[in-house]
Every structure is written in C-alpha cells, then in structure tokens.
Amino acid sequence: MNKTLELTCSLIERASLTPDDAGCQQLLADRLEPLGFNTEWLPFGDTSNVIFTHGKAGDPAGPSLWFLGHTDVVPSGPLEDWTSPPFKAEIRNGFLYGRGTADMKGAVAAMVIAAEDLVREHPDHAGQVGILLTSDEEGDAGDGITKVADVLRQRGTAPQYCLVGEPSSHAHLGDIVRIGRRGSVNAFISAQGVQGHSAFPEALDNPIHRLAAFLNTLTTMEWDRGDENFPPTHCQVTNIHSGTGAENVTPGHAEVMINFRNSPATPAEEIKSKVEALLEKCGLQRYEVAWRISGHPFRSEPGALRAATVDAIRSELGIQPELNTGGGTSDGRFIAPLGTEVLELGLLNESIHKIDENTSVDDLNALSRVYHRIMTGLLTG
Fold it and tell me: What digits encode the pLDDT tens for the residues 336-371?
C-alpha cells in the first residue's frame, strides 16, 4: 500500500460529517510537526481550521505556496445503498471506496505526502510551503476559509500561490485545471396573492400564475455571453413551494428559490436589479426577495503557479490540461481576493457526493507526484 493510499484510508475512517473534523486535522498535525512544520489552529464556532507551514514567508529566494483543502464530508445517505460501509475504506478492482475519497480526503492525503517528501528531500528549501484545511467547506462555509481569509488579510500574510485540491478532473486525472470559478447568487422570493375557490377566478389573485410569467422570462433571457474562460451567466429554478393540498383551492402564497451562476460580465448587483425590475413588470406587487451571495466570480491571471502546474501535469501524466472555470464554488473564492494566484487541481469528480464514492488507487499516487513536482518547481528551482 503506497503512502498516499494509506493516509487516505485513515482519513476516510474518521466520519467527519461537516462541520465535525473527527480528528482528521490532528492526525495530520501528528505527522507534520515532527518534520518541522508549524501548526496554527484557527477555530471558529464548531469549525476546525488549521494552517501547517514549513519555511519562511516573504523569503526573497522563493515564494509562499499553500495547498487548500477540507476534511469535512457530506452525509453518506442510506447506509443500505452502499456496497461497503461509507466510513470503512475498501479497495475493489483498483478503486478505493468510501465517503470523501474524491471530495476531498484523497487530495488532502496527496498534498500531505507530497509536502512530507519535499521537506525530507529539501529541508532548507526556499520560500514557504503550507497546507490550509477547514472542516466547513461542505456546510454553509461561514466559519471556515472565509474567516481564515479575514485573518490573513488583517495580518498581510496571504500566500503568493494557492492550489486547491477540489476534484476538478473529468475523464482523466489532470485533464482539467480550474483557473477561476463562476459566482453563485441565490434569490428567495415570497409572493403574496389571494386564496380562493378555483371556480371563481374573478375573486382570486393566484401568485403561481404571476410567478409563472416571471420565471418564463427569467429563465429564457440572455444575461451575457461569457468570455474565453467563463460560460454565459445562467439561472436555474431550484425549488417552488405553494398550495393548500386541496384540488379546488388556489394558494394565497408561493415561494421560489433561484440560483444564478454568473460570469464577471454580470455581477451580483446587476442580477439583483434586473430580477426586481422583472418582478414589478410581471405584476408581482406584494412580494419579498431575500438574497444570498455564495461567492463572487474570480479568475487568476497566468502566473508562475499556472506554469508550474501545467508543466507538472505534462511531465507526470503526459497530457495537456484544459484550463477553465467550470464546476460549482470552492473555498478558492475566499483566497483569490487577497491577491493570491489560485488554481484548482484534484481527483476525478464523477462520484462525488454519490453512493459508493470512489477514486482510482493509481490516481492517488499520481496526484501526489504532480503536487510534489509543482512544489519542487516553485520552491527548489
């Protein structure tokens, strides 16, 4: 059993349901501290955040390169649907099964093993290597990296480069590198009408009918055309709730949830103003809108981290990665505004959050080699 696989198995068998770390980060601290890594704990609320660093930040001979990951996982779902227990690592036909294998305990193990090897081989490496972990990525993320980013901003100690280990690969390990992410904007609309008997429409004000016209326009309009890195902004209706349960009674109240994935061409404030103008145009006069911005779009311009990452993938995996901004959101959205070049490279995402989540055993070792090459390229010349 290779080192990355062994560590991944140990992490999987800690049932770290968000925001419970279940001892994962302490396990890593016990490995890294004897090698000279400094450990800084930054807990907020029920969330465990930790930064492991080796070397000096601000070293003129080399940059600071941090890896970013999370130790929390989503719930397993029905245990009876799993082929093997979700928190008992099991290898079958060259694949490791268990909750968190791909998202993202496998990548956390790969970055830890790569960092250990770097320090053993180059104890006096230039610059600083770091690993930043949270247990609140799969939850609301309110006490995780967003709070850590505030601390780094206040101190002026953000790393120059940050590589996020989210499962970015699609068909083959390393085939996609995220150079940014779309934003995520959520609208919660509550519309009021007049409840009544469906046989007497003149006495009714059915909020579903008014919302139907609004939603039809909203979901078919063109927001922007994206650009060379970002797909066009689009929205999806994620939930509609209304009705009394009776077949002949129209509702007096309806609720809709909408999620926008936006490119930089359509910022959140523009989405808000257009949505509220459209609500008025469609005759919805009694309504409330609540907004939540999960993240603003970001894009890292080409830099040394991108060059080192592409070179490592070519050298170790023999492929040319596609550079894009697809996928959902990630904690990279909190680090990029600090002026850090942020990229994302991790395992395949096909099975994440699913029953029987898994990853290739070979990919675990290969990802650790890629991470190691990136570190050596930036920190040892």
Answer: 999 999 999 999 999 999 999 999 999 999 999 999
pLDDT at 1: 62
- Distances from the Cα of 175 to the Cα of 163, 218, 278, angstroms: 16, 34, 40
Indicate which residue of 20, 21, 72, 344 is catalytic. 72
The predicted pLDDT at position 77 comes to 94
Catalytic hit among 103, 116, 137, 344: 137
**Would you give the end-to-end CA distance of the chain in angstroms?**
31
Dihedral, CA atoms, 178, 32, 116, 70, nearest 10 degrees? -20
Quote the pTM value. 0.90
Do 345 and 67 contact (CB within 8 A), yes or no? no
Where does the chain show beta strands of DSSP type E?
Answer: 38-41, 49-55, 64-70, 90-92, 95-97, 128-134, 161-164, 176-178, 180-181, 183-192, 196-197, 234-242, 249-250, 253-262, 287-295, 298-299, 322-324, 341-344, 358-360
Q: Is the pLDDT of residue 327 over 90?
A: no
User: Is 137 labeled as catalytic in the residue annotation?
Assistant: yes
What is the rounded distance in angstroms from the CA atom of residue 338 to the CA atom of residue 341? 9
